[in-house]
Design a protein that fits this description.
By secondary structure, the chain is α+β, with helices and mostly antiparallel strands. 47% of the residues lie in helices and 25% in strands. The strands form four sheets. It has a five-stranded mixed β-sheet. The protein has a five-stranded antiparallel β-sheet with strand order 10-11-12-16-15, with no helix packed on it.
C-alpha cells in the first residue's frame, strides 16, 4: 500500500509539472486597441511616428518597436517611450519617432509587457505610396521567432507552481502547528515549505527577463537585467514578498511565540501581506474595481491555504500520526468545512470578474484551463467530503483510523490539490481575455479583376476603423473617387447601417463606425471602377465582445 501511495504521488507530481508549463501561444487582455499608422493603411507620405494604444497600461522595460522594410531589413529606431499627455505619463500609449521613410511597404513588430507581467506582441503592415508588397510571410516568421523558448516557459511555469505550493503548505502547516505542539516533523515541513516559497520567488524574479524578452539569456545577462525587473510591477512585489518571507522566517525561528496571542494576530497580518503580493502583481490588480478583486483574491488564497496546505501537511505527517491525532483532524475537518464554500464562492466571483462573464469560458485558453481547475476542485471537494463522512461516522476517540480508508481518501484529495496548484500556475501565465479580441480583421476580396484589401481595426464591439485599398491583379487601375459601404447583422436583426467613408489616398478609403454588439456582421462595399459599372464586395466579419 505504501508503495502504491508513493508511486501515485510521484505520478501526481509529474502531472503537475506537465500542467505547469504554460501554453505556447499566450493571450493577453492588454491588447492593441489602435495604432498610428493604422493596420494596412496606405499613406501618401512618411509618418512622423508610430503610436500604439493598448487596452490597459503596459510596461516598456522589456518592450520594443521594430520596423522592417519589404526586403526584411531592420530600420534602426530610437527607444520607445510612453506618451506624455498634459505633463502626465499615459502608460497605455507607446510611441517612437521615425526617420524619413521611402515609398514602399513596412512591417511594424511590437512587443510590450502588461503590468501583470505577461509579454504581449503583435505586428501590422502599412504602405507609403501606391507600390506595396505582401509582408504576410515576414510577419509570421518574425512573430514565431519572438516566442520565448519552451524551456523558458516551462521553467517559469515550474517556478510559479513551486511558489504556490510552498506558500500554501507554509501557511497551512503554520495554522496546523497551533494545534500540534512539540512535533519536530511539523517544524521540518514548515521550513521546507518556507524554502520552497523563497526559491520559487527568486526563480520567478530572475526568469522574468528572458520570459519577457522572449529569448534565452546567459547567467551574466540575467543578473545584469535584475534592475530592469525591479522597475516592473512584478519585480517590486517579488522583492516585497522576499521581505515578508524573511519576517515569517524570523517567526518560525522563534517557535515559542506560538504560545502568545500576538503570534496568531501577527501571523494573520503577515500572511495577508504575503497573499497580497500575488494578488496585486497579478490579474486581480489589473481589473476594474481592482481593490475588490484584490480583497476577494486574498480571501480565496487564505481559504485554499487553510484547506490544501493543512491537508498536504497531514499527508506528509503520515498515517501513524493521523491515527494518533483524531482531535487535530477533527479540528481540521471543521476548518475545511468552513473554508471550502468561501473558497468556491470567491473563486467563482473572481472568474466572473476576470472574464467579464462566463460567455468566453470555452473560447480562450484561460477559460479552458479554468474549467479543468474547477473540475479538479470539485473532485477534491468530493474526496474531502468522503473523508469527513468516514471520520464522523466513527468514534474518533477510540477508533484506530489506520483501519479506515481515511488516509487513502485524503491522499487522493491532496494529490488532486497539487495538480490544482499546477493549473493555477498556468492561469497566472495565461491572461483572462484573448488579445485576439483586439486583432484587426483583414481580408482580400476580388470582383471583376478588381482587388479590395479590407481591414477593420480592431474587430471588436465599439468604435472601429475601416480601411479599403483597391488595386488590379496586374497593370493599372483607373482612380476610384467614390465608394459607399454599409454593415448589417447576418441574422437581419439590425438593418444595414451606412458607413461614412472618405478618400484617404489613391484608391484608399477609410472610415469609422460604431459596432453595437458582438456576432457576425455583413460588410458590403459598392464602387464604380468605370462610368457604367458598379461592383459589390461583401464579406462576413466576426466581431468579438469587448
Amino acid at each position: 500500500m505504501r508503495l502504491f501511495v508513493r508511486v501515485g504521488f510521484a505520478a501526481t507530481i509529474l502531472c503537475a509539472i506537465f500542467l505547469a508549463g504554460p501554453p505556447k501561444s499566450v493571450e493577453a487582455h492588454a491588447g492593441l486597441k489602435a495604432s498610428e499608422p493604422a493596420a494596412s493603411a496606405v499613406l501618401e507620405e512618411s509618418p512622423e511616428q508610430i503610436r500604439l494604444t493598448f487596452g490597459e497600461a503596459v510596461e516598456i522595460s522589456f518592450g520594443s518597436i521594430r520596423l522592417f522594410d519589404a526586403d526584411s531589413r531592420l530600420i534602426v529606431l530610437p527607444t520607445p517611450q510612453h506618451a506624455i499627455v498634459d505633463s502626465a505619463t499615459n502608460r497605455q500609449v507607446v510611441q517612437v519617432r521615425l526617420p524619413e521613410l521611402e515609398p514602399g511597404s513596412y512591417l511594424v513588430v511590437w512587443r510590450v509587457v502588461s503590468t501583470d507581467s505577461h509579454p504581449v506582441q503583435g505586428a501590422f503592415a502599412f504602405q507609403i505610396g501606391t507600390r506595396g508588397s505582401d509582408l504576410g510571410r515576414l510577419q509570421e516568421d518574425i512573430l514565431a521567432s519572438s516566442l520565448a523558448p519552451a524551456s523558458i516557459r516551462m521553467a517559469m511555469g515550474m517556478a510559479r507552481w513551486l511558489t504556490f505550493l510552498g506558500v500554501m503548505v507554509l501557511v497551512g502547516s503554520m495554522l496546523l502547528s497551533t494545534r500540534i505542539i512539540g512535533d519536530s516533523r511539523v517544524d521540518r515541513i514548515i521550513w521546507a515549505s518556507w524554502f520552497a516559497s523563497a526559491i520559487g520567488s527568486v526563480l520567478v524574479y530572475f526568469l522574468q527577463a528572458p520570459y519577457a524578452l522572449g529569448k534565452a539569456l546567459g547567467i551574466g545577462e540575467i543578473f545584469g537585467l535584475a534592475d530592469e525587473v525591479f522597475s516592473t510591477r512584478l519585480g517590486i512585489w517579488l522583492v516585497i514578498r522576499g521581505f515578508i518571507l524573511l519576517a515569517i522566517g524570523a517567526m518560525i525561528w522563534r517557535r515559542d511565540l506560538h504560545r502568545q496571542p500576538v503570534y496568531r494576530v501577527l501571523s494573520v497580518l503577515i500572511a495577508t501581506g504575503l497573499f497580497a503580493t500575488f494578488s496585486i502583481s497579478g490579474h486581480p490588480g489589473m481589473r476594474q474595481f481592482s481593490a475588490l478583486s484584490i480583497v476577494t483574491d486574498i480571501v480565496h488564497f487564505m481559504c485554499v491555504s487553510a484547506w490544501m496546505g493543512g491537508l498536504v501537511t497531514m499527508i506528509l505527517l503520515g498515517r501513524r500520526w493521523q491515527a494518533e491525532s483524531p482531535q487535530v483532524i477533527s479540528w481540521f475537518s471543521f476548518t475545511a468545512t468552513i473554508t471550502m464554500p468561501i473558497m468556491v464562492a470567491t473563486g467563482v466571483a473572481q472568474a466572473w470578474r476576470m472574464m467579464d462573464g462566463l460567455q468566453n469560458i470555452f473560447s480562450t485558453s484561460y477559460g479552458v484551463v479554468l474549467s479543468v481547475k474547477v473540475a479538479l476542485v470539485l473532485v477534491a471537494i468530493g474526496a474531502g467530503a468522503k473523508a469527513r463522512q468516514v471520520f464522523k461516522s466513527k468514534k474518533v476517540d477510540s477508533q484506530d483510523l489506520t483501519k479506515l480508508r481515511f488516509s487513502r481518501t485524503i491522499a487522493v484529495e491532496g494529490a488532486i490539490g497539487v495538480v490544482v496548484l499546477a493549473a493555477t500556475a498556468v492561469l497566472v501565465s495565461v491572461p483572462p481575455l484573448s488579445v485576439n479580441s483586439a486583432e484587426p480583421f483583414a481580408k482580400t476580396l476580388v470582383q471583376a479583376n478588381v482587388i479590395a484589401d479590407v481591414t477593420i481595426t480592431p474587430a471588436r464591439v465599439g468604435e472601429v476603423e475601416l480601411h479599403v485599398v483597391f488595386s488590379p491583379p496586374g497593370g493599372a487601375l483607373q482612380s476610384i473617387q467614390t465608394m459607399t459601404a454599409q454593415i448589417s447583422t447576418v441574422d437581419g436583426e439590425i438593418p444595414p447601417i451606412p458607413v461614412e467613408v472618405e478618400l484617404a489616398g489613391t484608391n484608399h478609403f477609410q472610415g469609422r463606425l460604431l459596432v453595437p454588439r458582438a456576432g457576425e456582421w455583413l460588410l458590403e462595399l459598392f464602387v464604380r471602377p468605370t462610368g457604367n459599372e458598379t461592383l459589390r464586395f461583401s464579406q462576413i466579419v466576426a466581431i468579438k465582445g469587448d
